[in-house]
Amino acid sequence: MGEIGPAEPWVVREIGLPDELRQAESVFALANGHVGLRGNLDEPEPFGMPGTYLNSLYEHRDLTYPEAGYAFPERTETIIDAPNGKLVTLTVDDEPFDVRTGDLRRHERCLDLRAGTLHREVEWGPVRITSTRLVSFPHPSVAAIRYEVEALDRPVRIRLDSDLLANEEQPEPRDDPRASAVLHAPLRSLSHSDDVLVHRTRRSGITVASSVAHVSEPGEVSAEEDRIRFTLTTVVHPGTPLRLDKFVAYAWGTGDSDDDLAGTAVRDRDEAVRAGFETLLDEQRDYLDDFWDSADVELDGDPEVQQAVRFGLFHVLQAGAQAGPHPIAAKGLTGNGYDGHMLWDTESYVLPVLTYTHPACVGLALRWRHAALPAARERAAELRLAGATYPWRTISGAECSGYWPAGTAALHVNADIADAVLRYAAAAGDDTFVREAGLEILVETARLWCRLAHEDDAGVFHLDGVTGPDEYTALVDDNIYTNLMAQRNLRGAAQYCELFPERARDLGVSADEPRAWQETADNLALPYDNRREVHEQHAGFARLQEWDFASTKDDDYPLMLHYPYLDLYRRQVVKQADLVLAMVLRGDAFTPAEKTRAFEYYEARTVRDSSLSAPAQAVLAAETGYLELAHDYLAEAALLDLRAGGEASGDGLHIAACAGVWMALVQGFGGLRDHDGQLSFAPRLPSHLPRLKFSLRWRYSRLHVTVTPTTVTYAVTDEDLSFHHYGEPVDLKAGTTVTLDLPPVEEKAAPPAPAGRAPARRRDALDR
Amino acid sequence: MGEIGPAEPWVVREIGLPDELRQAESVFALANGHVGLRGNLDEPEPFGMPGTYLNSLYEHRDLTYPEAGYAFPERTETIIDAPNGKLVTLTVDDEPFDVRTGDLRRHERCLDLRAGTLHREVEWGPVRITSTRLVSFPHPSVAAIRYEVEALDRPVRIRLDSDLLANEEQPEPRDDPRASAVLHAPLRSLSHSDDVLVHRTRRSGITVASSVAHVSEPGEVSAEEDRIRFTLTTVVHPGTPLRLDKFVAYAWGTGDSDDDLAGTAVRDRDEAVRAGFETLLDEQRDYLDDFWDSADVELDGDPEVQQAVRFGLFHVLQAGAQAGPHPIAAKGLTGNGYDGHMLWDTESYVLPVLTYTHPACVGLALRWRHAALPAARERAAELRLAGATYPWRTISGAECSGYWPAGTAALHVNADIADAVLRYAAAAGDDTFVREAGLEILVETARLWCRLAHEDDAGVFHLDGVTGPDEYTALVDDNIYTNLMAQRNLRGAAQYCELFPERARDLGVSADEPRAWQETADNLALPYDNRREVHEQHAGFARLQEWDFASTKDDDYPLMLHYPYLDLYRRQVVKQADLVLAMVLRGDAFTPAEKTRAFEYYEARTVRDSSLSAPAQAVLAAETGYLELAHDYLAEAALLDLRAGGEASGDGLHIAACAGVWMALVQGFGGLRDHDGQLSFAPRLPSHLPRLKFSLRWRYSRLHVTVTPTTVTYAVTDEDLSFHHYGEPVDLKAGTTVTLDLPPVEEKAAPPAPAGRAPARRRDALDR
């Protein structure tokens, strides 16, 4: 019966009970980057998967290989559940409240994207139950719940058991290697009292203090090692609802820290109690008002996408806002998918959005990468490389990838991090960050590329044996994405060493090093097939055997679950945008004609078995004039977590795809580019979408851009701003506005896609 | 104190106690291909690793991957110990005999290569102990031991406990991924009696019946689930030795077989008892006399190599003689290394030797591959390929490789099997085999290549994304070894379909198929670097970065234990002969000048981190006129297991390297080639080696070839024989001899090898 209701601009509403509990729990997850609560029901049952996450609370797990090799990681890190403070068990006239039993007349949940709350209304038997849950943005360690029970027409006996519960039972992991390896009872109790539990993980040595307080009618508190329970028994009369305000706060850190974690958790909780639930609500809304003011995207003509882009931005904010000094994981704090690891999508998808909408947290995210430099240097030494080699997947900074051809070999992650540093440095103008953290990342990653690059007889430099974003090829020579991003990395490092010469000297950068970086960058191979007149994803790609799409059945996708790598790696079949993503991030390296030819060539070979693909394809489709197709890809990315159904997001949302909706709109239809730190726009909107408006920050300016199919209006506030519009410089004083005509775009039919793999025609859906 | 004594022509003698028990147990292992006993001492302690192996007695073990992929094998097979019948515990005047205690005055063991026995003589305290052990070639299920105790100067009280013991304690596995995963107590007792134990493996469902009988003075027999013990207590007087003859026989099979395995084991044992130990000895010698008559190799001028080539041939025979209907494992039955798996070395190294020396077992070995066709077809279907895809490593025929880039991707194993079929078919003229088994293997492997091959714009066919013999590159395009062997496979399949058209029709070979095979074969890419004028190991190899050998330290070898694949795969560093092996097996595809250039080029880049390398390098060194270098490589291969010391062979002998000694001599100095089923010779012997003599079989002929530095004499017996000598046809009547002059060879200094990796100069060792 349950489903996401019709699109509303600022609310995601679920009407009835969810069909897929795990999926709904991800969609309705609340988080602030520091603490995350999956959208479980208040009562313990039913549930898909519990989920109370503290950023970087993880346990170690051994990795074993049938045939191990040198430098294969011997252990991994797995996100684990913190004590769950969401639980409120209701008993009505001795009958436990369970949505699966009794007389359920109404069940509705709303994720309010401006309030930053999850609100629930239930009518069940003789009572109405409402709950409102938040994970506070301004108070990063705090979550709070208001739980109310109202007697509808007669007095009812009510019992509430409100728990803070450690070591909850977990469901068995699903049979998917990408899902998390769940650890049972990962927490060992150190101490417990009426208002705080202290636990420690068994192997990773992380201590967690969890405190809880209840504001309500008087009740009883009991405490044991893994549980604090507040119990309240009363009779509720019609017109006089029973209210329980529950405040939870966490503090955690490595075992050898001297911090009084229990004291911190209690103090943070007490502060929240003192402020009260209403104040927490108000502060939450203020925080979000400020965010939306410079982050909101409006799209007329497609209400579902309108809703989805805000939903996506909200979850991107939830993943990143208070993440520092910890990483931003691929699933944010919405599930335990990918073991809670962060991957390259953080720097390549999530941080670009936050750089333009909420830059403060980007600096912290990159400072986390800076703090992880010692581990990356150690890994580089272990791999017999130079500089730093960042992990493919990690929580703490240690490499946790168990399949090296699509992990360790994907060295582009290092250039992706450098790219995020360069973007943030340019957009935020944060010189302190560059001096304290950014430059060192640039230098150490440049050293990696310089060590890897190999000059051939003709003076061309090669990066051999690496894996690009497309995981359907691996260990290739001269992956063009990697080479172009490494080029940017090398040049950026040289440029910033020039800008910060003293700091460069401190980092031991010799006079020769930047010259070598420049030379390497200038001579890196960029594979090109002369006969087909198209760039190659890697050297020799266009010579490989074509995939037989005509014989590939629908249920053969995703291909990686039905074909061996042996088959995938040696064919022209692309899992996800690779060269196409390079044409977004390094669009300056291609002519428009080259982009069109390459886009068309790779469209025919890209199957989108990764959610990272559609956003990049949307951007390039827009740039090459395939505006309808761009809308199709935009919609695919936008509806993935919210409306695609099924179990796809059961282990957590695709935060990068959430960010990708913004990318598709702002970089695609808005034409935002930032090559070499230069802000530029080339908007283009299909005629069936009347208006796109987006805002962004650039240093101390805010820019508001309104695009129609024929015009664009730029409005600048706070400070003057210069940028390019279709290659022409535009200088706008703060408080001024300019409206410019857009060049006409001839709408074109989409180029051929692999049989059966074209995205759904969005206009067909809208016309229905 | 202990060591292998000075080289004797027909005996390997150990004087004193071995320093490395595990190593000695491998060297002194006895086997017949069906049953194998490691060379453990008679008494239970001390031991390096027990070892009583029955070919294909294995247990299943789960394979788990940190990140699994489609068609990654989910379980492997591990060789396990059968009940150990070697054990004889001696107590002398209440003191247990242990070589580590008491007065040990003499300890000597002899592996007699003509008698096929391991003989031991010990003087310890008041007694002399002698034992003689054999694993019967003519009675494949039978092992026998004669154990004698002699009082030296006064009567002594003797107790003998002779055991047949199941589920022995095993040492912990060494920390080397190549070693076996030892399974504790793998056998479950089904029944036991005074003379036969019946067990079954827990998961693989193999039933083993082990029977024992003792012929001696009267004693007592006790039996329990895992042990039959014969105990004898007596007083031994000087001049009247106590003798115990112990006979053990095994029968085993899958659990659902209806065979009376216990009955079979008892019957075989009883036959052996009836024959008696002396008769077993006589039959053993007769069998070996016959073998040596057409297999022996004599080399004057290097006694250690002379001994080693016989030692190697003996162990090759021990691995293969009675292996059918089971596989010949990489370690034979001398240890549990590689989990007891067979790999491609069987077809590419071991079977060629047996084809010319003991062809009967080659037909059986290849019939085993034929029996494994259903599994190979199933694997091909799983891998979305066509025809058959044989496993990289296996016992039963199922793929057991846990690292696919150096396992599943090494598809050349299929062509190696086809090559062995073609060689055996030509050399043995066994048409029945071709009809019943060989042709189907050829056809199914040809279908694999035809499916894999991809035609480019220029009409060149490619085999992309495969791994050749050199495991320091992987997933490459157009590995030249693979392409050339696939070419032979395709052409051979077409040719034999023409020779056996009815059988081909039965196999569903259409008229078009052989044409497609021919076309594919004729157009397969053979990478060549025009600038360097040298063939490439794979497309682009010569463009890769060079390895920095100057900075690589001695203890950085083997490189795979000290560098990541990431580093190895993208450089010009070669673990083992690959292109060089192709120039041996497909020498017809290269001109002499191409061979010399390629040999020199790859010599400079080959580190020989595999024992498979030196034999192939020896052969090509001889062919290209580097005769001293050929001798160096010959000696390295020859002395590896016998005199290299250390733990290298502790898990079992390198049977392929044992075969490689013959290769180095007969294909190297003898210049034997068999391209396209045509026997040819081009002998060349360095001036410091006076004489090489070898014998071989070709169909019903035996050929005896005697090479000196200046002449060669061919003597044919049994039947007329035609072959080529330096490209010229020679037709010899049975019983005739011809002596021909050899072209002079200008001795050349060895081409450069990687720093520190040149083989030891054998002449220097001989001159000392």
UniProtKB/TrEMBL annotation, chains A, B:
SUPFAM superfamilies: Galactose mutarotase-like (SSF74650), Six-hairpin glycosidases (SSF48208). Residues 672-732 form the Glycoside hydrolase family 65 C-terminal domain. Residues 18-252 form the Glycoside hydrolase family 65 N-terminal domain. GO terms for biological process: carbohydrate metabolic process. Keywords: Glycosidase, Hydrolase. Gene3D superfamilies: 1.50.10.10, Glycoside hydrolase, family 65, N-terminal domain, Maltose phosphorylase, domain 3. GO terms for molecular function: carbohydrate binding; glycosyltransferase activity; hydrolase activity, hydrolyzing O-glycosyl compounds. Residues 310-663 form the Glycoside hydrolase family 65 central catalytic domain. Residues 742-768 are annotated as: Disordered. The active site is at E471 (proton donor). Substrate binds at W344, D345, K575, Q576. Belongs to the glycosyl hydrolase 65 family. This is Kojibiose phosphorylase. It comes from Actinoplanes friuliensis DSM 7358. The lineage of its organism: Bacteria, Bacillati, Actinomycetota, Actinomycetes, Micromonosporales.
